[in-house]
Amino acid sequence: YPTWKRTLARRARESQVKRFCRAQAIQRRLEEIEVTFRELEQQGIKLEKLLRDENESPADQQTQWTNQLLYLVQKKNNLMTEESDLMIAVQELKLEEQQCQLDQKLRSYMNKQETLKTPENEKAEQEILKQLLEVVNKRNVLIQMQEEKRLSEL
């Protein structure tokens, strides 16, 4: 087993572990966001009830409750933005994993000697190359979406 093949295999495993760790971190954050959403919903419901039921409260108190409610809405919107960014990151990780797998398959076909390749091998190699290009294009679209989103937020 040549050194370069071992190096490629090790790098592939390392990148797979990194993707897995990133996916776990994203999943944890998505769960945290979900819990925070529920908490914000409960706080919002309480504030809305206070605003509806306490018509005789001082104007300062109602203004304070309204400001708190607006703050909760803003916080929820920020979390929704973060959640959509994380969902894009999840899609990107899936495409990255798919690209890595296709790349490994393509390398295995390309490493065969030309004299040993069958027409089926060549056809499979072309199909994998086509799939790889599709994945790269999908990743490019995701990156463009993120960039457009970032620019619109600025």
TrEMBL record:
The BMERB domain, residue ranges: 13-154
Task: Enumerate the InterPro entries for this protein.
Answer: bMERB_dom, F-actin_Monoox_Mical
SMART domains tied to this protein: DUF3585
Note whether Cell membrane occurs among the keywords. no
Species the sequence originates in: Eulacestoma nigropectus (wattled ploughbill)
- Pfam families referenced in this protein's UniProt entry, alphabetically: bMERB_dom
Q: Which PROSITE patterns match?
A: BMERB
Keyword Transmembrane helix appears in the UniProt entry: no
Q: Report what the protein is called.
A: MICA1 monooxygenase
Subcellular location as annotated = Membrane
Q: MF terms per GO, please?
A: monooxygenase activity
Q: Which UniProt keywords apply?
A: Coiled coil, Membrane, Monooxygenase, Oxidoreductase
Spell out the coiled coil positions from the record. 23-50
Chief location category: membrane
Q: Which domain of life is it from?
A: Eukaryota
